[in-house]
C-alpha cells in the first residue's frame, strides 16, 4: 500500500473515510459467493456484520455440497465446511459432518510442512476454517483436535510472517489451546497487519492484554492509515480486517465522547433520587419488604447496579500493583476511563476526618505507577446525615489533582440507621394493600 497522492488536504476526514469504507466493502463483495474461502474468512472476521450487500457465502445447501463433493478430499474443502458448520447450521449439517469425519483423519496423515510451502498452515483462510471444523466436530473426530494442536505448536511456525502468525494465534484460541503470541503492536508497520492485531485484541476475550496507551496509539495509526492510504485491490479478508478496525475505532470514539468521568459523576449524583424507590416498608403492611443498609458492601452493590449497565468494563474490587510492602485494592475500576471509584460509609461525623486521611494515603498507592488508572472518584454514603461535614471533606479531597470528583450523599429518611426502626406511619384512610410495596 502507498499513501494517497495528490489528495486534497482540505477534504473532510469523514468524506475520505466514507469513501474508503465503501471501497473496502466493494473488495469484500467480490468474494461474496457460496463456499468462497476469501468471502468466508471475511464473514468470520466481521462476525456476519450487515454491510451494504447481503451475504451470500453460505455453503450449507445440499445441492452445493453435492456439486462440490470432490473438494472435500482436500484441506481447502474441509475448511469451507468448518465455516459452514459454525456460521450457517442447517439441514445440511449432518452431511457436512460426515464429509469431515472422513476427511479430517486423512488430512492428519499428510505432512503439513511440505517443502514447496503449499500447505494449509501457510494459508490463513484454511487454518481458521480447519480450526472451526475441528471445534465443531470434536465429538465425532476427537483425535483431530490433538493433531491440529500439535501442528500449531510446531517451532517451524515461528518464522511465519506477522499476518499469518496472528491467524495461527486465532486458530489456537478456537480449539482452546494455550495462546503463544508475543507481538508488540508498536513494532508492526504494515497497515493490514496492524488491523489484524487490533481485531485479535478486540476478540481475544481477556487473553491478550494491551496497554491503554498502546491501544490508543494503534487506533490512531489505523484510522489515519485507512484515510490516507491507497487500498488498491486487496483480498477480501484483508479488506475485512481494515473495515472491522474502522468500525470498532469509530464506535469506541463515540463511546469516549459520550462516556466520560463526568458521566460517572452524573450517574452517582442521582443516587439520592434513585433511593426513593429503595424498599423499606412500614410494619402496617401485610408483607412489608425491608432492604437494610448497614455497611459499605451494600452501597457497593447499589453502585454496581447503577454503573454496570453503562460501563461494560466495570471491575469490582480491582487489585492494583504492589507498592513497597503494601498491596492496594480499589472498590471499582473502569479501565476505559482510567478511573477508580472509591466508596466510603460514614456512621458518624468524625468519620469524615478519618476518610480524608485514608484517601490521602491511598491516593498515592492507587494512582502511582498504575498505568491503567490515572484518576479517582470518591463516593461517600453518610448514614449520620452530618451534612455540615460534606463541603469540608469534598474541598479537601478535590485539591488532589487525580481526584475527578467527590460525591457525598445522605441516608434516605425512610431507611433507618442500623439498630433503629422507622416511626410507624399514621393511617390516612388508605388501604394497607394499596401502600407502595404491598
Give a quick set of tags describing it.
438 residues; 5-stranded mixed beta sheet; two-stranded antiparallel ribbon; elongated; disordered N terminus; disordered C terminus
Number of strands: 7
Oligomer: single chain
Distance between the termini: 69 Å
Stretches where pLDDT falls below 50 for ≥5 residues?
Answer: 2-11, 425-438
Profile the largest sheet: 5 strands, mixed
Number of contiguous helices: 16
Order of helices and strands: EHHHHHHHHHHEHHHHEEEHEHE
Task: Assess the beta-strand content as a share of residues.
Answer: 5-15%
Summarize the structure.
This protein is α/β, with parallel strands linked by helices. About 45% of the residues lie in helices and about 10% in strands.
Structure in words:
The protein is α/β, with parallel strands linked by helices and 438 residues long. The chain contains 16 helices and seven strands. A five-stranded mixed sheet has the order 3-4-5-6-7, with helices on both faces. Strands 1-2 form a two-stranded antiparallel sheet. α9 packs across α10 (212-228) and α9 (191-202) packs across α11 (236-258). It is elongated and about 80 Å long. The relative contact order is 0.08. Residues 2-11 and 425-438 have low confidence and may be disordered.
Amino acid at each position: 500500500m502507498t499513501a494517497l497522492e495528490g489528495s486534497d488536504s482540505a477534504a473532510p476526514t469523514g468524506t475520505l473515510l466514507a469513501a474508503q469504507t465503501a471501497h473496502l466493502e466493494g473488495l469484500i463483495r467480490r468474494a461474496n459467493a457460496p463456499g468462497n474461502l476469501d468471502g468466508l474468512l471475511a464473514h468470520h472476521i466481521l462476525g456476519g456484520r450487515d454491510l451494504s450487500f447481503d451475504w451470500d457465502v453460505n455453503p450449507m445447501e445440499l445441492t452445493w455440497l453435492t456439486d462440490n463433493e470432490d473438494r472435500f478430499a482436500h484441506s481447502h474443502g474441509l475448511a469451507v465446511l468448518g465455516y459452514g458448520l459454525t456460521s450457517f447450521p442447517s439441514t445440511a449439517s449432518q452431511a457436512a459432518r460426515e464429509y469431515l469425519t472422513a476427511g479430517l483423519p486423512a488430512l492428519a496423515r499428510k505432512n503439513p510442512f511440505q517443502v514447496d510451502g503449499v500447505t494449509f498452515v501457510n494459508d490463513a483462510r484454511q487454518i481458521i476454517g480447519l480450526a472451526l471444523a475441528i471445534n465443531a466436530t470434536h465429538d465425532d473426530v476427537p483425535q483431530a483436535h490433538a493433531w491440529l494442536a500439535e501442528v500449531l505448536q510446531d517451532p517451524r511456525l515461528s518464522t511465519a510472517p506477522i499476518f499469518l502468525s496472528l491467524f495461527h494465534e486465532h486458530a489456537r484460541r478456537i480449539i482452546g489451546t494455550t495462546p503463544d503470541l508475543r507481538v508488540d503492536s508498536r513494532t508492526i508497520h504494515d497497515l493490514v497487519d496492524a488491523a489484524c492485531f487490533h481485531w485479535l485484541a478486540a476478540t481475544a476475550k481477556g487473553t491478550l492484554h494491551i496497554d491503554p496507551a498502546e491501544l490508543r496509539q494503534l487506533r490512531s495509526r489505523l484510522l489515519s492509515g485507512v484515510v490516507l492510504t491507497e487500498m488498491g485491490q486487496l483480498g477480501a479478508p484483508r479488506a475485512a480486517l481494515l473495515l472491522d478496525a474502522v468500525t470498532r475505532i469509530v464506535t469506541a470514539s463515540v463511546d469516549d465522547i459520550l462516556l466520560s468521568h463526568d458521566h460517572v459523576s452524573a450517574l452517582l449524583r442521582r443516587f439520592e433520587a434513585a433511593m426513593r424507590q429503595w424498599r423499606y416498608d412500614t410494619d402496617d403492611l401485610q408483607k412489608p419488604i425491608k432492604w437494610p443498609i448497614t455497611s459499605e458492601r451494600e452501597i457497593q452493590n447499589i453502585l454496581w447496579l447503577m454503573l454496570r449497565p453503562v460501563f461494560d468494563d466495570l471491575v469490582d474490587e480491582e487489585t492494583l500493583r504492589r507498592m513497597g510492602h503494601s498491596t492496594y485494592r480499589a472498590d471499582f475500576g473502569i479501565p476505559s476511563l482510567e478511573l477508580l471509584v472509591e466508596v466510603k460509609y460514614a456512621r458518624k461525623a468524625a468519620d469524615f476526618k478519618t476518610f480524608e486521611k485514608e484517601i490521602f494515603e491511598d491516593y498515592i498507592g492507587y494512582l502511582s505507577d498504575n498505568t491503567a488508572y490515572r484518576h479517582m472518584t470518591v463516593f461517600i454514603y453518610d448514614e449520620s446525615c452530618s451534612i455540615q461535614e460534606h463541603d469540608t471533606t469534598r474541598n479537601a479531597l478535590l485539591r488532589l489533582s487525580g481526584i475527578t470528583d467527590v460525591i457525598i450523599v445522605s441516608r434516605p429518611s425512610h431507611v433507618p440507621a442500623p439498630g433503629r426502626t422507622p416511626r410507624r406511619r399514621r393511617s390516612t384512610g388508605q388501604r394497607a394493600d394499596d401502600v407502595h410495596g404491598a
